Amino acid sequence: MSQMSLQEGTSTRLNRVKLFTKLPSMTTDPQESRSFGAGAAGDLPTSAQAAPPTRGERLRYRFDNSLFKSPASFLWWLALGAGATTGIASLVWVGVQPREDRSAAQGFFDQFFDAFNVIFFGNGPSMATWTDRVFSLVCWVISTALMATIIAVISNLISERMEELKKGKSRILESNHTLILGWSSRIFPILQQLSVANENLNDPLIVIFAEMDRELMDSEISSRVGDMGKTRIVTRTGDPSNPRDLERAAVSTARSIIILDDDDSGDAAIVSTVLSIRACAPDSRVTIVAEIDELDHAAALSHATDGQLKAVQSQDVIARVTAQASRQPGLAAVVLDLLDFEGDEIYFTDASELVGKTYGDALVAFDNASVIGIFGNAGVALNPAPSTVFEAGDKVIAVAEDDDKVIFTGLRDDLAEVKAARMVGEVAPSPEHIMVIGWSEMGQAVLTELAQFL
Question: Residue 319: CA atoms inside 13 Å, Cβ hemisphere, count?
Fold first, then answer.
């Protein structure tokens, strides 16, 4: 019984397997290939299997690998291509050559070498013997190697020269230019203002010398400054604190020098740059304007340069303008109009015609400018007493559209009664309430400025 039951069970299972294997053919197209669990089994469907590479693809693959395997491989392929191309052209030339031009004593190889010699070497008919031909081929190889070497050397020299020009390592051969040393975000408004100030000059030039890639400087200036009018800009890469590098910037022939603070190194870089300028041009008296944070450093550098350095404490200026603008809204616009080169500006002009005259006389002696003070040995005196007398060497401080507008037009005796008139009386101050929101390094300077008026 047990044996019969085992046979029946086995037979039943076989029948089920046969029935299961026939199910696909009963429910699907016989031409369709089915895949059950292809991802798990590792068998890809027939439609997803990649076609085997062709002979051409294999040759292309091997050629690409061998071409960039080494420089020698590239040269071998180049020689093979040149030889095959020239050989085919030589065979064509032999085939089209008239029979009457061929020598009866020449065989096929002689005619082939004649064609090869004409096409490849550019010579006339070949030599008579194979010794001459081999010698000609050796001479060609040597001359080709020499010419290739010469061309490579010349090309390398030209490439190095072009790279040097791109890096900005060449000297500046200009004069009477504005020299900007260093790089910071404040260079862009400075360039814009200089372009406006240079509108009345012939061929104005600005030279920028900084530790920055020349191409990057040119790109930044082009994208953030725009049209500079008549003003030309020349950029050079170098260390402004290194006298050897700074010699390339033509310091001694510059009209003025501006030193920018990069905001990271403090006054150390400024001090080094000023000393480098003095080393390059010890006898130069060109005006140097530099951003300096510490007042003590500014005083020391001004004394060391005998007044040649004019220090600008940008943080202090911003703090003082901020303090006054908080008391008088609109004052910032007035200050900006006086400090930039658009509209009217403040100028210092020699006043030799006013020596011995009073400040009251000078107020009405300039038709196209407004006199606001005197600059003399004692320093700047804004709106002094009308009886103040001009001495030799004093300068007039005036507000005008441009420096060529501050012209002495003569004394006006007919205005003697009104030219020295002053306002009488004082206006009672009113209480001021100011709220300070936030704090920064300029906070103390703002409060110090406000304390004088509150």
Answer: 19
